[in-house]
């Protein structure tokens, strides 16, 4: 009996020794898992399922990015009058006068018919325009119309199954809302950056005639012009247009044209071939203490009229130099940009009321706006 127990104990000891060696050196032979295996399995399962990380903006980027295109323009070579100047050659180098100049920008497909919103400065003076989609398809772009006053342009391409961006509501935007900027900076390829709305209604920047910019800290760089500013749902809020920069790169101050303005320009150009705006023929200026004293004004709210075009709509309505324009159609006017915006929104041919102060008298004048002439006509 002792012999059997001794033999049994030796066999068990040998088997335990073998199990220990195998478990240590080759645990997979015993179908064992280390303590960190469950974490790896969970990570793999999460990746395989394609679940979105909490707080991720990936759905918005995936929804909007296919409708954002890259625009390459070619301009005919032109002799620059500064080329002969030594300082110009120092900063920009020698240029081949016969070499066509190329430009880069972005655009947004806003219609299944192939209409694209972009900036006027992206396509201005272009002899050829090539549009590249996110799926690498290419097409020649045709300029349907431009609006230099807002720096917007409408292109069209002829391709099937075009991705179209969803219109957003820029009027409901608030400072602090999260946004994405999508475009093709420096020609490196489509890029998505994120930030917040830093300010609304930015004007008096000297960029466009009509300014009502959305300011954002989402990175916008050269090549992003004409690209999309979208909300967290991927809906279009604005067209990226300009940056404030001392170096040429992003400094966290970018500007986009609100989609409300872009839609007005798009509809006007497609319907009429141009944007129809109101015009009354005045030269307005910001009111300051010196001008107020000169014209005998005590009130400081409004815009001072320093010039009135002879036989223009304002002159026919009785507006005079020195009048303080306070209200247009019941809407208060606080600066020149607000006046231009209010007047341009008026339908030509329809009478509206102007509230003005002439020295110490308040007057109401009826004015019938005309259609705003082109920049060239105004220059003449």
Task: Identify the overall geometry.
Answer: elongated
Low-confidence stretches: 32-49, 87-93
Beta-strand percent range: 25-35%
CATH superfamily of the largest domain: PDZ domain
Which bin fits the share of residues in helices? 10-25%
Brief write-up:
The chain is of the alpha+beta class and 380 residues long.
Tell me what you see in this structure.
With 380 residues, the protein is α+β, with helices and mostly antiparallel strands. It has 3 domains: 60-156, Beta Barrel (Thrombin, subunit H); 166-260, Thrombin, subunit H (Beta Barrel), CATH 2.40.10.10; 278-379, Pdz3 Domain. It is 25% helix and 31% strand. The protein is built from 10 helices and 22 strands. The chain has a 7-stranded antiparallel sheet with strand order 5-4-1-2-3-7-6. It has a 6-stranded antiparallel barrel with strand order 9-10-11-14-13-12. A hairpin with a 4-residue loop joins strand 12 (228-230) and strand 13 (235-243). The termini are far apart. Mean pLDDT is 80; it is low at 32-49 and 87-93.
């Amino acid at each position: 009996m002792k012999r059997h127990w001794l033999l049994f104990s030796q066999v068990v000891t040998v088997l335990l020794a073998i199990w220990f060696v195998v478990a240590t050196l080759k645990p997979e032979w015993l179908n064992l898992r280390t303590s960190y295996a469950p974490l790896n399995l969970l990570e793999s399962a999460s990746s395989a399922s394609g679940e979105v990380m909490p707080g991720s903006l990936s759905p918005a980027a995936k929804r909007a990015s296919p409708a954002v295109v890259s625009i390459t323009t070619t301009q005919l070579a032109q002799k620059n009058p500064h080329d002969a100047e030594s300082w110009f050659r120092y900063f920009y180098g020698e240029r081949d006068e016969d070499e066509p100049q190329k430009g880069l920008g972005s655009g947004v497909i806003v219609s299944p018919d192939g209409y694209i919103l972009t900036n006027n400065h992206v396509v201005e003076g272009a002899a050829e325009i090539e549009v590249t989609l996110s799926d690498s398809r290419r097409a020649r772009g045709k300029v349907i119309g431009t609006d230099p006053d807002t720096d917007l342009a409408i292109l069209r391409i002829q391709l099937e199954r075009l991705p179209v961006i969803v219109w957003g509501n820029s009027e409901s935007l608030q400072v602090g809302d999260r946004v994405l900027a999508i475009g093709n900076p420096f020609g490196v390829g489509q890029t998505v950056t994120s930030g917040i709305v830093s300010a609304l209604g930015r004007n008096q920047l000297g960029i466009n005639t009509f300014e009502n910019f959305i300011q954002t800290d989402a990175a916008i760089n050269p090549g992003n012009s004409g690209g999309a500013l979208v909300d967290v749902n991927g809906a279009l809020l604005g067209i990226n247009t300009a940056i404030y920069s001392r170096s040429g790169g992003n400094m966290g101050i970018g500007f986009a044209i609100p989609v409300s303005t872009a839609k007005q320009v798009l509809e006007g150009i497609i319907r009429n071939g141009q944007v129809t705006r109101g015009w009354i023929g005045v030269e307005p200026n910001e009111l300051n203490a010196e001008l107020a004293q000169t014209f005998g004004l005590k009130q400081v709210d409004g815009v001072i009229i320093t010039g009135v075009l002879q036989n223009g709509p304002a002159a026919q309505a009785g507006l005079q130099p020195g009048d303080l324009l306070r209200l247009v159609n019941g809407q208060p006017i606080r600066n020149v940009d607000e006046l231009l915006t209010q007047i341009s929104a008026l339908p030509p041919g329809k009478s509206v009321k102007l509230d003005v102060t002439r020295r110490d008298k308040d007057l109401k004048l009826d004015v019938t706006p005309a259609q705003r002439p082109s920049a060239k006509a105004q220059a003449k």
